[in-house]
Design brief:
mainly beta, Immunoglobulin-like, 6-stranded mixed beta sheet, 5-stranded antiparallel beta sheet, 2 helices, 21 strands
Amino acid sequence: MKAPLPLLAVAVLAVGCRPDFGTRSSRITEPRILAVQATPAEARPGEVVTYRALVALADGAPALSWSTCATSKPATENNVVGASCLGKDVRAFGGRGPETSGEVPADACTLFGPDTPAPRPGEPPFRPHDPDVTGGYYLPVRVDLPGSDPAVALERIRCNLVGASPEVARDFRERYVPNRAPHLLEVTAQVNGAPVALDALPADATITWRARWSGPEDAEPSAETYVVYDVASQSLVERRESLRVSWYATSGDFEADRTGRSEDETESFSENAWTAPATPGPVQLWVVLRDARGGVDFLALHGTVAAR
């Protein structure tokens, strides 16, 4: 079953991309950053985070450059990331390449979270940022691939709980567990219920792809249980993460660009139908798993479409 997920569960946003209404997001025809995995998946300001990018159609180690947004998004802008982050209003972060590490900026919770800086003389106080539906705040991390549009990954940052009573805030600190990234175990293919090898995908056939991740029976399930502060009841509410799978391929057509499981579904897999191209030849596929709190995992697959 496919389920819609909250917008802010997305870990990478292709902001600044030119609109192309003739091509679906699942079709890859040129180099593109598909996802960025952060380890740990949630960190406090000052903690070191390692970022690893999934780049489609890039040979070797692409010369990625990394930066973080230097200013918060104005209230007048509707985008998830402020337009200034696509210009020069960024801070260099880490090194170059598909993987880098660095500290979460000390002012991350001020720029992008609930902490508010002191107002400028003669100006009204700043309004704190609102959390997403999971209670989270996110540091925008910009990734630039030469010759391609920039991408922005949203790293979940752990900030203080505001607006709650001292008792609820203390309970939150004791119960809240920082997000861990989901674990994508395998991606397999079937035709009419029978397994199909990646190097023998039948041409012009409808192939069912299944992405499987760690489930409730595993030591670290991908769909974690967490607490979030509910403003209406002024209490903590326990929730379970939803999961979303994004599918990409260099040829063929997926039935859906994204599938997944809602927080009420306990199954640890998601399926998607793919119509293989009629012409035999190599095909590349990428599968990205995201949880509702911004954690990411991914797999890259190399297959061959064979004549039937």
